[in-house]
Amino acid sequence: MSSTQPKVITKSDPTRIAITWSDGHETVYPAAVLRRLCPCAHCVNEVTGQRMLDPESVPDDLQQTDVRLVGNYAICVRFGDHHDTGIFPFPFLRDHDPSGA
Length: 101
Ligand SMILES: [Zn+2]
Hints:
By secondary structure, this protein is an alpha+beta fold.
């Protein structure tokens, strides 16, 4: 449980979000990768779980323009394509480490 809590969230680089976890592990999420993972109801069918978003429609150089904490369990990311309904719980982020670690 404690390993899924972030210690530091760095959003100063608009092309990525970096999270340093409470166990010292650091994960870097390119903004485009997070956008493709977006679990919101616009991007994933709530009934079937099918992904509605075409990953190829997300440019690799997409930027994030804001990151907000949601309670103490998630972050909400606003993307350069004005999509801001995605809520990314910390365990979800930790499970989707782009480096595979
Ligand atoms: Zn979404």
